[in-house]
Structure prediction request, 500 residues.
Amino acid sequence: MDELIQKYQAIRNKMLAYRFASFIINWDSNTEAPSGSFEARSRHFGILSEDSYKFSTSEETLSVIEELYKNRNSLDEVLKHEIVEAKTSIDKLKKVPMDEYVEYMTLLAKSENIWAKAKNTNDWNLFEPILEKIVAFLRKYVEYTKTPKLQGYNILLDEYEKGMTQADYDEFFNTIKTDLVPFVKEVTSKTLEYNNSFESHKFPIEKQKEFMKYIMEVMDYDLTRGLMKESEHPFTSGIGTTDVRVTNHYYEDNFISSIFSGIHELGHATYEQQVDPELDLTLSGGGGSMALHESQSRFYENIIGRSKEFWKEHYPVLKDLFKKELKGIKLDDFYKHINKSTTSLIRTEADELTYPIHIMIRYDIEKALFNNELEVKDLPKVWKQKVKEYLNIEVPSDKEGVLQDVHWSGGMFGYFPTYALGSAYASQMFKVMNKDFNVFKSLSSKNTKEINAWFKENLHKYGSSKSPKDLFKLCTNQKFNPKHYVNYLIKKYTKIYNLK
Prediction:
């Protein structure tokens, strides 16, 4: 067994090296690679993908993992979980023809750049052909990898949140539709009175960046193991606990966007930086699942970042930085502004209350796409219909509609539902955390260290060494219950809008 484990460790080290190469290439592609480089880099990435495929499905790799799988009950818990996951992953990969896999990975190496151009020029026709190829591959992929237990769209959902199926998400979103949507309609029909004169001002981008440096200190983001750059769509990327990077995007006419995008991504980064460093040399590092990851980003962004207690400490710093722009704007005005609930077009700018409705739109579209009820060419029209149905607003352009999100250009179908699920996880974690200490009171320290420490002990340190459901149970000592989410939002917005 010792010899077998040593062989596996060598295999794992090479897999980690491929992951590292992929991370660096994708990071560079999304931050500072020159636009003329994408054709060449996609060829290089294709070669690396082919090499990775051959190595992962080689006779030696397969035999070592198979032998360890047979003897999994004699392994420690972390390695046992990892071997089960590795076998599942490689068994799926083997079913996909190598030439199709390499062609797909080569496509993804340039698709995000094409999406960014299409979005910025409001040109759906530029993006449609490449998205058709992505969807065509994924439709074949679900056919290749289906099992008696897992088929169709469920295969993609399971890749982002293991154990969650379409039936589970349907039940979750039905709770949102039944218990929350009527309340959302009530709130969005009201006017929130406050001094909003600052909304017409321009907020210099350099000062926004300065404030984000301050927020990085508040959230205890370790800059010896991380950094923040710019991208069209903010994201978090990295490998292990020693290299965790975030990006942001800045708008002069919407300074709120960079604040909350930044806090959101730093929530992801906190999770990654607080995993047990001993897991860095395994395939069990990083966050436990996409919904667990989103629970962290949404927890810091909304529950903490949009609380009055947070801004009691940090609004004076913001106001001092933007003396002219925020002149005469009181804390209460700012608090109401960042929690105002209105129906809107852009998911990433949506308020906390209407946000899950944006996710339902994408979930409905993805389900229809992979149940072969829709084709890619239909997406702009269907998007507009869904936005009208759910939010009762017109979509003026594809840039503000079907082109607004980066995810589909990266083949990430099945990811979106985890955003809403993560928000619901966060509200339940908040309730449990408050049993150990007063969360909002802890913010008087002017940082989130006490919150970070609680998450490290109860969730972060385990990385992905257990199943998502086990990790959630470890963190909360409860089963997931979406009613916590509904109750949290109704209580918060009833108070903000002074409802009876």
User: Anything to note?
Assistant: Residues 2-129 form one domain. The chain has two domains: 2-129, 166-496.
